[in-house]
Amino acid sequence: MRQHFAQSGRASLSLFFVFMIIAVVSMALAVRLPQVQSTLDTVVSAQMSPSPNPLNFKTKFVSFEPLRSLTTAQAQSSIRSFLGGQNVRAIYPVDVYTLKFEVTVEDGSYSPITAQVFVPKSETPGEHFPLFVYAAGTTGLDDRCSPLKENQSRPSFGNYINQMVTQASQGFVVVLPNYEGFDNPDRIHYYFNSDLEARVLLGVSREVLNARQTRSLPIQPNTLFFGGYSQGGHASFAAADYVSKYTPELKISGIIGHGPTTNIYELLKDNPNLAPYLMYAYQAYYDDFKPEELLTTRELERLGRAKDLCVDQAFQYNSTSQRMTYNADFLAALLNNTVKEKYPAAAERMDENSSGTQYEGIPTLIVQGDRDPIVTIEFQKQFADQLCENNVPVTFAEYKGLDHFQSRMRSFTDTNFWIREIVNGQQVNKMCN
């Protein structure tokens, strides 16, 4: 039986326009398709990576340094920014730290990762708090678009820093990492790559829990929750998929998806304006992924710009039209669910990067607005049913009248309540029989 948290409310995510210079694609070749291919080759030549090898996973601690301290009044300012008029009060001041570590990637080399750790400051000796590792939604591919570089006074990416301060002020040790590639000048963020997302979330959890410099953090023993918004939901489910392979010593207490985008086919169907990110990143990462087989000529000519547009700009610049983004053959295959037959190489990469399909037994909360245009309520219910079939205990929280952005904010109190029920060993409401 599904549980529905019926709520109404308004929350808006302000997007601000940022003027930028966009590189002009190369011209003057007489034949149009060779011109496009030449542009694509130039775009990805410096970014090519070998195919992923998930057998090698290591982390290396670098540093853990204090960044700033926030009073309860300052934390309350973050609450107002993130939650608007909701009646939530800051309980704890918050100390913020910067954690730097390295994680191995597909070829066995190390790549640097930066994370921020938000720690409630308690006056009660010995008080400890659940560990909540959170993954951001789509922000872009280039380092300047990383979640930790968002201007906190202009929440143009997703208001993640204010969200983390809000969460910590309620009694959680919260970790927000950049995705792999953001902090590496030799790489980009390889968008919707399940393996790399999992490496980051599992790696940062290992370092927070085990590094000598972080052992004094007031983390409640045997608590580790992964959460994420949109793409971050994809990353959280990827961590659940890979935990037994990479970090079997970690026991995940729960998975939270705020409008999680877990399926690559659905992402492309519902969000043509985000397709350039995925096409650019997948061609840069996989030798056999060919955007020229999938996109219109117009989109191919513009594809190089995907690297430079942060998400606030992408929503303004990229087309929301399926027909203007995908060529007729690929669009037909996408809509008729025949991509695997028509485009087997592309389908293989999409399948291996759809997350949430390989784990069982971990309590899972899915938060979904019924007016979400990014991930539809119909798909999300199908995904929840699939999890149930995989022996995953699912709580499905549907919010009436809310969209993709609003449900994350409006579910804040319910999400915290669900986590605390798990921590306290209580039974949570589940839709699975």
Describe the structure.
Helix content is about 35%, strand content about 15%. The chain is of the alpha/beta class and about 425 residues long. It has a single domain, classed as Rossmann fold (3-Layer(aba) Sandwich). The protein has 16 helices and nine strands. It is globular and about 65 Å long. Helix 2 crosses helix 3. The protein has a nine-stranded mixed sheet with strand order 1-2-3-5-4-6-7-8-9, sandwiched between helices. The longest helix is centred in the middle third of the chain and has 17 residues.
Give the second-level CATH assignment, the architecture. 3-Layer(aba) Sandwich
**Percentage of helical residues?**
25-40%
Q: Pairing-aware structural class of the strands and helices?
A: alpha/beta
User: Would you state the CATH class?
Assistant: Alpha Beta
Profile the largest sheet. Answer: 9 strands, mixed
Report the count of strand segments. Answer: 9
Mean pLDDT: 89
Order of helices and strands: HEHEEEHEHEHEHHHHHHHHEHEHH
The value of Rg in angstroms is 21 Å
- Write the CATH homologous superfamily: Alpha/Beta hydrolase fold, catalytic domain
Find the CATH topology. Answer: Rossmann fold
Shape: globular
Widest β-sheet, arrangement of strands: 1-2-3-5-4-6-7-8-9
Task: Describe the protein's topology.
Blueprint: H1 32-44, E1 59-70, H2 72-83, E2 94-104, E3 110-120, E4 131-135, H3 160-169, E5 173-177, H4 194-210, E6 225-229, H5 231-246, E7 254-258, H6 264-270, H7 275-285, H8 297-302, H9 311-317, H10 322-325, H11 328-335, H12 339-342, H13 344-352, E8 364-369, H14 377-389, E9 394-399, H15 404-410, H16 412-423
Parallel strand pairs: 4-5, 4-6, 6-7, 7-8, 8-9
Antiparallel strand pairs: 1-2, 2-3, 3-5
Helix pairs in contact: 2-3, 4-5
